[in-house]
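User: Here's a chain of 445 residues. Predict its fold as tokens.
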Amino acid sequence: MQPIEIENDAKYQCFKQLAVNWKYGSNYWTSGLRTQGKNFSWCNNNNGSVHFWAPGQPDNLNGSENCVHMNIKKEKSSVYLTDKKCTNINVFSCQGPTTPPPRCASPVCPNITCTRNLSLFFQMTKKGKTSYYLINPNLFGSWYKKNNRFYVYSYLNQTKTFLGAMKACCDLGMNLLSLQFDYKFDGVKAGVKEKYATPGYYWTSGTDSGCESAFGFCSVNRLVRKDAKWQPGQPDNAGGVEHHLAVYINGSSALMADFNGDTKLRYICEARDTSNSATGGKSVRDECAAIYNVSSIEIDNLLNDTNYDLRIKCFIKCIGENSGLMIDGKFVESEFLAILEKLAAGNLQDLKKNLMIQDECINSTGGMDECDKAAQLIKCANEKAPDVFMSVVNEKENSISLSESAQEIAPLTPEPTFCVKNYTSCVVNPVLRALFETTTKSEAS
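Assistant: Prediction complete.
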């Protein structure tokens, strides 16, 4: 390939369109070089002059800026060219011959606007914060809560198509079920086992519509894992029309199968319980801590004692995957790079230091399993550059919405606190009192 060039308006407009949904870094070297005075040209096209400069550019600061740098402004969905010192450290960009588009890698999800139906809610304002709670939650199904997550199982007479189920959950300010993690299989299975709901097929948000065999969960924009739990012989795309996923739950297992999206089935809506979480990051942490039985003391000591047991390793993986920084125990490099560039704030030495973590830790292949791999990555980053690592953690903590999508909320009215009044009279136990006094005297001596 060759260093990238933006030699005409058509290519520039193409880059601007890419910038709308750009998920990667912001700063890239191009092939552009100063040729004479204020003139720049592209190395692979000596007759091609450089245009599309940012306002005030090129300015040749300190008389040493001779290379062309491309900056993608994601917040403005635009692309700018500036002149920079050629010895600066930046990510580079390449271009090659036109190739056929790759085979699709993810499904086409329904294009619906998922918003709450406010007529189903009442407002409650406390300390200046307005919350929305369902007026009559029991109209919509059986409610079950496990590990800081609500699941709503529609009743036997509440069946809908795949799209209808998705819209029904959106009305509640929730999402149609996604089974992107093993613990969610356990969660929905427990609801049936504990008789909050009856066995049967329930819609999930999974589909391979428009991309045969590439199943993904639309509610969370995640592909179905290779080790997902399927019914025997599934998925089979019977008749060539089964492109949507349901899960059969009987209390002892929860196994997926593909169906025609027009089939009417029951469905499960889900939402993270955010009622006791001050931030989105805290709500993610609370959920993962509940799943793996991790105490607040262990969380506070996480970076001081890296001799992790399996619970802590899987807790780390859970945090990483729910925050979007990890998939299958590996860092999502585009997410990490974007944060590192933001933290550097244009300082080249800081950027170089930050990129070192990506080179030395993110690309590591160590680890016996996904939990172990995630723990090793965290340990490496914390040891190599603890200040940078903590900045990444804080940045992600601040950026996590209270939801996996726009709809994650706590839809149930908080139960009021109350004092227990039916206890027996409070009487001092003379045996325990004597024991306490004896122990106190012994410790004092």
